[in-house]
Design goal:
The chain contains nine helices and five strands, in the order E-E-E-H-E-E-H-H-H-H-H-H-H-H. It is an alpha+beta fold.
């Protein structure tokens, strides 16, 4: 129903923010990662949104990055994972660490998230491992098969850190003009990401 809301940040509380747009204050549930991005009161902020509707619940959730919203949508499709637990999971680690843990089947890391048991962590890996791995591989493949391995590794690393596929590819392509080796490519590419 709503794709995103852009408005002035007027309130921040644990697990939620309020954005004012045209005289309406939208209260959105947010993860710890999005909450960290909501650091300047009175500044304009854009949050990708999801409206959760059940018999007695209307809840609006907001995400500072589209990739976080996509992962949220995938999480709530899993039996036993509702919006509150999905937000808890998203706030457990940065998006890069979380996607790498899911893609590599690292149940131990996932189980360290407060409120997430081993069985549910295993269920998440079982349901999302392939999708998340494909997303990460897509980022690397945008570079093209002809590019050297260092470039692909740098793109993969940036995506693992939560940078979008397109932005990672663009930054690494710029960086490779002056940088050599994976470490240098990553360090230089990070300067181009804003």
């Amino acid at each position: 129903m709503y794709n995103y809301i852009k408005g002035t940040l007027v309130a921040v509380e644990a697990g939620k923010v309020v954005l004012e747009n045209n005289g309406i204050g939208y209260e959105l549930g947010v993860s710890g990662n999005t909450l960290a991005d909501a650091n300047e009161m009175g500044k304009e902020m854009k949050l990708y949104t999801y409206l959760y509707v059940r018999e007695d619940v209307f809840a609006l959730y907001g995400f500072s990055r589209a990739e976080e919203k996509t992962l949220f949508m995938r999480l709530i499709e899993i039996s036993g994972v509702g919006p509150k637990l999905a937000m808890q999971i998203l706030g457990g680690y940065d998006l890069g660490t979380l996607t790498v843990a899911i893609a590599t089947g690292d149940v131990k890391t996932l189980s360290k998230i407060k409120g997430l048991g081993k069985k549910t962590a295993e269920l998440i890996v079982l349901n999302l491992r392939e999708q998340v791995a494909v997303d990460m591989a897509d980022a690397a493949s945008e570079i093209g098969g002809a590019m050297e391995e260092d470039v692909s590794d740098a793109v993969f690393a940036l995506v693992s850190l939560g940078v979008s596929n397109t932005e990672a590819v663009r930054a690494v392509q710029k960086a490779k003009e002056t940088a050599k080796g994976v470490q240098e490519l990553i360090a230089t590419a990070l300067k181009f990401i804003g």
